[in-house]
Each structure stands twice: as structure tokens, then as C-alpha cells.
């Protein structure tokens, strides 16, 4: 088999997506997600100018060699733009291989280790009462695990809450919006949220929380300790992800399980965290990690240290990325949970998907390949819109982690 053509399709059905489509001389094609939220066109240029010309005529079955060629061969390794581009290619190649084999992708990975994939969804409110109600609504929909985020008195527009909770491209995102942050206000308020949610909804639901890299290690340690009575499934992204050593201090002080890694893009970003068992869940995901080939390695490496998986799955990972993640989730012996924030209906129309959601669990489906496609005609009706993630400042104006 030979690669005859590779297209990069950019569309914005409510938010921007970059999709790679690889065609072959045998008529089989595969698709992969290459979306990097807020930096989409940098990945498009990387693919069109530097990757695609090298792959025309190559055998699409040589997934490992193509991955090494694009990663090692570039000399300039790592980084989100590079790794999203490689991921688009790698995911499309696995899609082709599984279609050629006449199997759903999880069979090629080693088969299913479970019947269904537990997922967590999001509940948020501008205040605690609203978030408690939102948790109730998600429980009514059948979800078993719920990430809770609330606005904080005195701080407008806190991440994951209010108007900006749904990660669509809002009209006012054409330039970076500014949010405001205060760690003291947050640390005093966050435990009250979980006290209220447990009081209202009991002990059975798994509760998660995301701090979006905004704390220092000792602040994260304090928060983890304060949340212990509420028995969280995980506390996510407490400190800046670059500071792997910072987790040593957090770990010494709290038994709240820790998750990190949505911004990592290679296994080396998480090596120390896993080797020293400083985390419980690794949040890396197919699109930002460079594809299925390296994600399988991350998952295997994590399993050696008792670390479980918790793939990032917000709406800016396209349904293709979710589909690919779900095949890995169904296979991985050390699977933990899959994030699922859901999609707008127009996104699901553009990306016809074999995966299903039932009673708080996902399944990748039995379609050959990874089971997600792109409707190119429909995609063309939703042109790209420049959109940024927000930036964050402390109350005195200091630029802070977002
Ligand atoms: C999550 C994430 C997202 C990210 C978003 C950035 O845990 O789902 O923190 O909300 O902010 O994916 O593009
Ligand atoms: Mg997060």
C-alpha cells in the first residue's frame, strides 16, 4: 500500500478543529486529530510545509518508522505544535491499519480489557449552589463521575465556570480574554464546594477537581489536605506542569489522589512523576502526545509504577481524538477514567462517530479503524475563526498560570 495524498482540513463547527486525512492507492483512508487549541494554524503550516511532502509514496503500514522519522528525524524534537502534527498523521495511519485488518483498533492493541470505559463529565456554577444543582443534573443523566468547578466570590470569570464553561469559540475570543485570580480567595472557598456537593449528593458519586496549574507546591499540599474528607477521585493540575519535582512536596502532605499531564507532549515530561510515583493518574491524550504510538508507551510505562490513565477529553479534542483515546482506554490494563465534556450537535454532525455513551460509560464501537470520520462537505460550511484561550492575571496585574 502507498500513501497517495494527505489533506489537512480546518473547520469550526462551534470551535476550531484541524483534521488530517491520509489517502492510499488501495482506496482506504484514515483520519487523525491535529487540533492545538488557540494555535491551530501553526500545526497546519507544520504539516503542509514540513511533514506531508516527506510522506507521499510511503507505505502507511510502517507506522513506527514514520513516527520515528517525524520525531527523531526532525532533530528539533517535542513541543505541542510538532507533537499535534505527528499525532494527526499517526492516528490516521492506525485508522488505515485497523481498517485494512478489518478490525476495530482496540483489537490491534491487544483486545478489550473491559466492557466499558468510565468517563467523567463537568458540572460548574457561578457559585456553590449552582454547581450543586449542576451535579444533580449530571447524575440524572447517568454520569458516575463529575468534575466540579465553581466561581469564587470577588473573582470574575474563573476558569471552567459561568459564561466560559463550555469550550466553544466565543465571539470575544478573537483576542485573548483576561481572567483574574487570587489563590487565597480560592483556597478558602474550594473545600466548601465539596462539602456542599457531598452533603447534597452523598458518597457514591466520584468527584474530581481541576486547579489549572495555579498553585505553588505548598499551596497544593494545603488544598489536597483540606479536600481529604470529601474523598476526591482526583485533584488535577495543581502546580505548573513543568515542575515535576514540586509533586514531591505535595505527595508528602496529602492522600488526595493527584492527576497531571494534559499539557505534556512526550513521555519524558512525565518520567520522574511516574518513576517516583508522585501522581496517581496521567492525563496525556492522543492528540497532544504525538498519537497512538507514543500513548501506548506512556500507558505501559505508567503501569509499571501503578499509575493509571485519565486521558484529557475536553471539547477542543475532536471526536476523532476521543475515538482514538477510547480504543486505548478499552485496552489499557491500567485504565483509570476518560474525560468527556461532550460536544455541540454541529460538531457531532461534522464528525460521524461510532463511539457511544451509555449510563456514564463510553465505548469506542465495533467499526473498523478507530470509528470516527469527517464529513468534508459539512466541514467546509464552518470556516476557521481565530480564537484564543484566555490569559490570567493576579489582582495586582501580575500575569499568572492559566
Ligand atoms: C480539562 C482542561 C481543559 C483545558 C482545555 C485547553 O481538564 O478539560 O483543563 O478545560 O483548559 O482543553 O484547551
Ligand atoms: Mg484540566
Q: Which labels suit this protein?
A:
402 residues, alpha/beta, Enolase-like, domain 1, TIM Barrel, eight-stranded parallel beta barrel, three-stranded antiparallel sheet, 14 helices, globular, binds D-gluconic acid, binds magnesium ion
Molecular structure report:
- Belongs to the mandelate racemase/muconate lactonizing enzyme family. GalD subfamily.
- Residues 128-257 form the Mandelate racemase/muconate lactonizing enzyme C-terminal domain.
- It holds the Pfam family MR_MLE_C.
- By secondary structure, the protein is of the alpha/beta class.
- It folds into two domains: 3-104, Enolase-like, domain 1 (2-Layer Sandwich); 108-367, Alpha-Beta Barrel (TIM Barrel), CATH 3.20.20.
- It is built from 14 helices and 16 strands.
- The chain has helices at 40-55, 63-71, 80-101, 105-109, 128-140, 183-201, 217-227, 246-253, 271-275, 286-289, 292-304, 319-331, 345-350, 376-379, and strands spanning 3-11, 17-24, 29-33, 117-125, 145-150, 178-181, 206-210, 234-236, 258-260, 281-282, 308-311, 335-339, 356-358, 361-363, 391-394, 399-400.
- The strands form three sheets. Strands 4-5-7-8-9-10-11-12 form an eight-stranded parallel barrel, surrounded by four helices. Strands 1-2-3 form a three-stranded antiparallel beta sheet.
- Helix 12 (319-331) links the parallel strand 11 (308-311) and strand 12 (335-339).
- Helix 1 crosses helix 3 (80-101), helix 2 runs antiparallel to helix 3 (80-101) and helix 7 runs parallel beside helix 8 (246-253).
- The longest helix has 22 residues, at 80-101.
- It is globular and about 60 Å long.
- The model has no long low-confidence stretch (mean pLDDT 96).
Amino acid at each position: 500500500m502507498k500513501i497517495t495524498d494527505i489533506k489537512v482540513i480546518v473547520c469550526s463547527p462551534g470551535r476550531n478543529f484541524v483534521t488530517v486525512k491520509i489517502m492510499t492507492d488501495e482506496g482506504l483512508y484514515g483520519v487523525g486529530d491535529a487540533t492545538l487549541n488557540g494555535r491551530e494554524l501553526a500545526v497546519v503550516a507544520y504539516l503542509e510545509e514540513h511533514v506531508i511532502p516527506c510522506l507521499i509514496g510511503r507505505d502507511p503500514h510502517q507506522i513506527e518508522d514514520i513516527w520515528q522519522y517525524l520525531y527523531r528525524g526532525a532533530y528539533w524534537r517535542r513541543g505541542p505544535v510538532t507533537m499535534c502534527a505527528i499525532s494527526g498523521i499517526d492516528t490516521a495511519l492506525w485508522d488505515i491499519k485497523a481498517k485494512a485488518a478489518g478490525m476495530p483498533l482496540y483489537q490491534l492493541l491487544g483486545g478489550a480489557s473491559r466492557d466499558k470505559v468510565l468517563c467523567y463529565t463537568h458540572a460548574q456554577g457561578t457559585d456553590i449552589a449552582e454547581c450543586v444543582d449542576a451535579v444533580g443534573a449530571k447524575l440524572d443523566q447517568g454520569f458516575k463521575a463529575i468534575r466540579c468547578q465553581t466561581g469564587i466570590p470577588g473573582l470574575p470569570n474563573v476558569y471552567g465556570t459561568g459564561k466560559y464553561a463550555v469550550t466553544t469559540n466565543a465571539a470575544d475570543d478573537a483576542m485573548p480574554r483576561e481572567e483574574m485570580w487570587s489563590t487565597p480567595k480560592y483556597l478558602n472557598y474550594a473545600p466548601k464546594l465539596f462539602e456542599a456537593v457531598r452533603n447534597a449528593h452523598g458518597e457514591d458519586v466520584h468527584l474530581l477537581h481541576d486547579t489549572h496549574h495555579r498553585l505553588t507546591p505548598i499551596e497544593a499540599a494545603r488544598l489536597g489536605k483540606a479536600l481529604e474528607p470529601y474523598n476526591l477521585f482526583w485533584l488535577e493540575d495543581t502546580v505548573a506542569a513543568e515542575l515535576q519535582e514540586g509533586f514531591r512536596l505535595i505527595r508528602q502532605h496529602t492522600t488526595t489522589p493527584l492527576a497531571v499531564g494534559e499539557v505534556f507532549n512526550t513521555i519524558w515530561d512525565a518520567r520522574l512523576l511516574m518513576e517516583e510515583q508522585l501522581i496517581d493518574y496521567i492525563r496525556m491524550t492522543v492528540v497532544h502526545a504525538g498519537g497512538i504510538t507514543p500513548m501506548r508507551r506512556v500507558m505501559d510505562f505508567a503501569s509499571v509504577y501503578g499509575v493509571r490513565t485519565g486521558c484529557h477529553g475536553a471539547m477542543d479534542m475532536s471526536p476523532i481524538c476521543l475515538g482514538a483515546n477510547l480504543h486505548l482506554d478499552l485496552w489499557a490494563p491500567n485504565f483509570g477514567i476518560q474525560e468527556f465534556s461532550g460536544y455541540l450537535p454541529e460538531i457531532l454532525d461534522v464528525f460521524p462517530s461510532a463511539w457511544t455513551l451509555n449510563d456514564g460509560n463510553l465505548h469506542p464501537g465495533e467499526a473498523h479503524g478507530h470509528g470516527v470520520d469527517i464529513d468534508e462537505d459539512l466541514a467546509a460550511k464552518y470556516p476557521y475563526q481565530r480564537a484564543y484561550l484566555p490569559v490570567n492575571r493576579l489582582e495586582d496585574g501580575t500575569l499568572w498560570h492559566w
